[in-house]
Amino acid sequence: MLEELIKLSDFIGNTPLIQLSSENSRLFAKLEYNNFTGSSKDRAAYSIIYNGIKSGAINENTTVIASSSGNFAIAAASICRRIGIKFIPVIDPNINHSYELLLEMLAYKVVKVTTRDYTGGYLLTRIEKVNELHAGTPDSFIADQYADPNNYKGYYNLGKEITDSFDKLDYIFIAVSSSGAITGISNSVKQVRPEIKIVGVDVEGSVIFNQPPMKRFISGIGASKIPPIIENAIIDDVVIVSQADIIKGAMDLLHEQVIFAGASSGAVYYAAKHYFPVTGSSQDAPTALLIFPDKGHTYLDTIYNKEWGIQLSQKMQEAASMQ
């Protein structure tokens, strides 16, 4: 089982790096959607499952259970299918429809929660269901992307890929959700290049950086609880974007750079584009790297759908009026 898993490592990491066109700074993008299943979450899922097998917590009879809004579930489901063990993802209504269909084909069973938690999100409800399934499933293992340190350790190699690629780098912009990427990258990068500033990008309504909770309708960014692993992150600054900003960022990224990426990438692109004029950086043409976690094809029904965007605006107005 472990030998089969190790074979996958050749298809995870060493993702392409490209330069973007920009007037106020030198922007580069790390295209993490070139990983095995199409997202940066391959790094986290591989690390958690690999170390679970090495420790003896996962064997050929184990059922792996995980809470996910999409990408982590796809990564874990694909890896578990490849090595021949059962996987149960716990998802919610914000998941992209195509991901849900794919999980139905890959996973042993898909469990979907529909009740929002007290923050207006679904994360706490998903975690509660994961714990319930774990308690009722003999020989089960929780792939906990929010608390397992093997999540962020899976991104150490990404940090090395970054520092090996740049003689000069001033900023790295990273979207947060489970916070594995920002924790792993910041630790890895700061060890060798402490001058590089790490900028976290989150969405309004997420509580990760102690913002007031509110309903969110875009998957893949933000969280209804502060992930324990983020305590290990080294973050220099934070940018909070709105859900409308995410849509605009994704559309701008497509039109201006011809990069068809997902919601987190749109958030990061929007944040980076507006960051330097706002902060009034004294550096001449600062160099920044943007982490783009996944592609946009699974968001065609949401952030790239004009009608969905109008409905989102209406939902946000209704939610604001109720506060």
How would you describe what is shown here?
The protein has 323 residues and is an alpha/beta fold. The chain has two domains: 1-34 and 155-311, Rossmann fold (3-Layer(aba) Sandwich), CATH 3.40.50.1100; 41-142, Rossmann fold, CATH 3.40.50.1100. Helices cover 42% and strands 15% of the residues. It is built from eleven helices and ten strands. The chain has helices at residues 2-8, 41-55, 71-83, 97-106, 123-136, 149-153, 156-165, 180-192, 243-257, 263-279, 306-322; strands at residues 17-19, 26-31, 63-67, 86-91, 111-112, 140-142, 171-175, 197-203, 237-241, 287-292. It has a six-stranded mixed beta sheet, sandwiched between helices. A four-stranded parallel beta sheet has the order 5-4-3-6, with helices on both faces. Helix 8 (180-192) links the parallel strand 7 and strand 8. 50% of the residues are buried. The mean pLDDT is 94.
Tell me the layout of helices and strands.
Blueprint: H1 2-8, E1 17-19, E2 26-31, H2 41-55, E3 63-67, H3 71-83, E4 86-91, H4 97-106, E5 111-112, H5 123-136, E6 140-142, H6 149-153, H7 156-165, E7 171-175, H8 180-192, E8 197-203, E9 237-241, H9 243-257, H10 263-279, E10 287-292, H11 306-322
Parallel strand pairs: 2-10, 3-4, 3-6, 4-5, 7-8, 7-10, 8-9
Antiparallel strand pairs: 1-2
Helix pairs in contact: 2-3, 3-4, 7-8, 9-10
InterPro entries: Cys_Synth/Cystath_Beta-Synth, TrpB-like_PALP, TrpB-like_PALP_sf
Cofactor: pyridoxal 5'-phosphate
Protein name: Pyridoxal-phosphate dependent enzyme
